[in-house]
Structure formats: structure tokens, C-alpha cells
Design a protein that fits this description.
The chain has 81 residues and is mainly alpha-helical. The chain has 2 helices and no strands. The protein is elongated.
């Protein structure tokens, strides 16, 4: 492959560039902590699309349609209460 000066189809990386100083001492949080918080918020919200259990479908389209029907059903029940 011939890389001409005017050809910019390949990435340009300057390996001699000085990145600089990192300022601060903050360390990233653990992903597990975020998941626990999300699960707690979801559990406390009381939102459920369907009852727990195993549901088997013949196709993804059939599962999507069933899930939509269950979401509509739950929304109607929530609106009545």
C-alpha cells in the first residue's frame, strides 16, 4: 500500500508527543457498586413488566410482541390504582 503525503486514509499517531501531568487523586469506582445501586433503585420503584419465571418463545419477534403486551397490561393496571 502506497502512503502518499496527501493520502489521509491511514491514522496519524505522534508517538513522540508528551502527554503531560495527571492532576488529582480520584480513582474510578467499582462497576459492581453501580450495579447494586441500579438494582436497588429498580426494586424500590416497584416496576415489573411480567411475573418472574421462565418463558419460552419460538422467535424473537414473538417474545417482543408478548413483552409489549405485558408492558401495556401492567401500565393499565398501574393507571387504575
Amino acid at each position: 500500500m502506497d502512503h502518499n503525503v496527501g493520502d489521509q486514509t491511514f491514522p496519524v499517531t505522534n508517538v513522540e508527543e508528551f502527554i503531560g501531568k495527571t492532576v488529582g487523586r480520584r480513582k474510578p469506582g467499582r462497576p459492581g457498586k453501580v450495579q447494586k445501586t441500579g438494582r436497588a433503585i429498580y426494586r424500590l420503584s416497584g416496576f415489573k413488566v411480567c411475573d418472574p419465571g421462565v418463558y419460552r418463545f419460538g422467535s424473537h419477534e414473538e417474545a417482543d410482541e408478548w413483552m409489549l403486551q405485558m408492558a401495556i397490561k401492567r401500565a393499565h393496571l398501574a393507571a387504575k390504582s
